[in-house]
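During the no-cost extension, the postdoctoral fellow (Dr. R.K.) reprocessed legacy sequence entries with the updated structure-token encoder. One reprocessed record is reproduced below for audit purposes.
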Amino acid sequence: MSGAPPAGPGGLAGHLDGFVRAVREAGIPVGISQAVDAAEVLTVVELLDREQLRHGLGAVLLQRAAQRPAFDVLFDLWWPLTDRPAAHRAGGAEGEGGQDDGPADGELLPLAGGDPGELAETLRAELLRRLLAGDDESLRRFARTAVDAFGQGQPTSAGQSFFSYRVLRALSPDTLTAALVQGLLAGDERGGLAEQVARHTGRERVDAFRAAVEAEVRRRTAAEKGRDRVVRSAVRPLADQVDFLRAQQADLAELRRTVGPLARRLAARLSARRRLGREGRLDVRRTVRASLATGGMPLVTHHRPRAVHKPELVVLCDVSGSVAGFSHFTLMLTQALREHFSGVRAFAFVDSTDEVTRFFRPGADVVDAIARIGREADVVAFDGHSDYGNAFEVFAERWPAAVGPRTSLLVLGDGRTNYRRPGLPALADLVRRARSAHWLNPEPRRLWGSGDSAADRYREVVPMVEVRTAAQLADFVTTL
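Re-encoded structure tokens follow.
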């Protein structure tokens, strides 16, 4: 039940191009071939059937389930419900003049006049009826009626404002759960699997109505204040696009799901580099026997198979307040890496260094481990401000054998020294002794060397890459 194709230059093709651009700007990679496929979708689906169009475009533009919420928000803004639908619904067709925001039978509920409390009870009863019916399109249309009734705030000079919380507070859909479960059971005995299924179904339908209200509020706000303004506030960055330094707790919870695959890929890359290194020792006996075929000339040498072990890893992680979000993520990565390396040793530092491997025992909760590091690790020696020079020197002095020829060294931090000694000689010695070394910096490359940043000096000693998001970390792993 989407509206007619947009008028003006470009028409539907221009409208689709704007939608594809918005999807790309939301962090969902869309190539030229996918954009062409999206245009092809418009020729094979029923354009007046919003859900058919939604699923068709989603099938060609999305690669991962995590991209779906952002896509749905953008789709609802580019293809909103219209006031006069012209599409068929399952089970029958609406009349050409039917309203799409009325009850299931096409009749509008009266909203004008009367007591607000009575209106709320009337709409609650209608909401329960639609929740029991389980028609998603009906719930979306009813959401428009509910926003009409309760969603408008006081008009201001900036225009009319709409609020989903006002609708949800007036109708309290969560309080309908008991009646909804009873209706879904339809006479079946309570308890057991049947009731569990009914409760799960009820929660899903209530969540669908809540999402429909939020989508309708976004639609009206976009019509009132502009679509671009709504997109900036309504579309959350994808988990792998969240800037570590600005990540909130909810973002970090989502990022935990990306850690495992990244850890496996990183371990595989480091192991591959090790396998592609020097061959095993010369097998003298096989080489001599092979030389008999060439008159005693060892034209072909044979080597003993070199045993490939899991690589060793040492992680040096800045856990100061300025990089809290980044250190949280990298410590989660450290925990995941323990499954793929023969030895993972983790060291945290602020203005001193302490080994924190003990907090990442197998099966340990990452959040609890990070909290214990903050309470128990000896990472502050003076004033609690970053001192990379002292941290590197303490590490080299207390754990001189931690880094060796079989060790991969990862340094994680922004390189901001608070204008203190950068400790370049100590770092250079660690890099020289390690099999490989890399520095992951969560700050934009353009800021390296600005203010108290010594990143430009550190990058002369150790390869440094900008890793502000999980996507950039994945790129780093790919290029190893």
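The mean pLDDT is 79. Strands lie at 88-89, 92-93, 312-318, 343-349, 353-355, 407-412, 436-441, 464-466. The remaining legacy entries will be reprocessed before the final report is submitted.
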